[in-house]
Design goal:
globular, AB_hydrolase_fold, MES/HNL, Esterase, AB_hydrolase_1, methyl indole-3-acetate esterase activity
């Protein structure tokens, strides 16, 4: 069996994986989740949150494992796992992008979003965070999720997102990042990162396999069993 490290997206936390983690563990895998700095229950001040801080935390977790890991990133987590792979490529067996950003060298998440549709937010200038427009959250993130209790809980748990990680350029090489096999799970009903945009990214940066999920931007809630099965098959 394998060790999976699951990285959440913007505005979220390790709580996003609360259905996926036990299902993967029941199949015999080791599963590690974490809150990125300033996310979930991590109280790092937004002005101290950077992409480098994300990468340091994820790399530290990976280095604590006894074997190479399957590193999974959702949404903004795709930026995080990409840069992390440049630092600890020898510790990563596979990179898995789940409805995630897949950047090229020199790009930032902000530059990747230029001209693209995405979540609607306002900027809190005082602490430089992005605050989701509440009435758009369900249609953007949970449009194919039917469980009302899950949707209500997710709505309550989302936090303002530090903007600095959106602005830092990725620095990756073929020798390190490029040496790790990449897999992309498309979320075809996604309103946060539309499927056409996902396919542009996974064409620009080719992956070993493309997997399609008929899911919204939260496949861990709308299609948890299918997501787990696909992850399990990558072991």
């Amino acid at each position: 069996m394998s060790t999976y490290v699951l990285i959440h997206g913007a505005w979220q936390g390790e709580w996003a994986w609360e259905l996926v983690k036990p299902k993967l563990e029941s199949l015999g895998h080791t599963v590690v989740t974490l809150d990125l700095p300033g996310s979930g229950q991590d109280m790092t001040h937004p002005q101290q949150v950077t992409l480098d801080a994300y990468v340091t935390k994820v790399a530290d977790v990976i280095n604590q494992q006894n074997e190479k890991v399957i590193l999974v990133g959702h949404s903004m987590g795709g930026i995080v796992i990409t840069q992390t792979a440049e630092h600890v490529s020898d510790k990563i067996d596979k990179l898995v992008y789940v409805g995630a950003f897949l950047p090229k060298n020199g790009e930032s998440l902000g530059s990747k979003l230029t001209g693209q549709k995405g979540p609607q937010f306002t900027v809190n200038e005082a602490d430089m965070t992005a605050v989701l427009v509440p009435e758009t959250i369900e249609n953007t993130f949970l449009n194919a999720t039917n469980d009302e209790a899950i949707k209500e809980a997710a709505f309550k748990k989302m936090r303002p997102q530090a903007l600095a990680p959106f602005q830092q350029q990725i620095s990756i090489s073929e020798e390190k990042f490029g040496s790790v096999d990449r897999y992309y799970m498309e979320t075809t009903l996604d309103n946060a990162i539309p499927i056409d945009f996902q396919r542009i990214m996974n064409t620009e940066t080719p992956c070993k396999q493309i997997i399609s999920l008929e899911a919204d931007h939260s496949p861990f809630f709308s299609k948890p069993d299918e997501l787990v099965e696909h992850l399990h098959q990558l072991r």
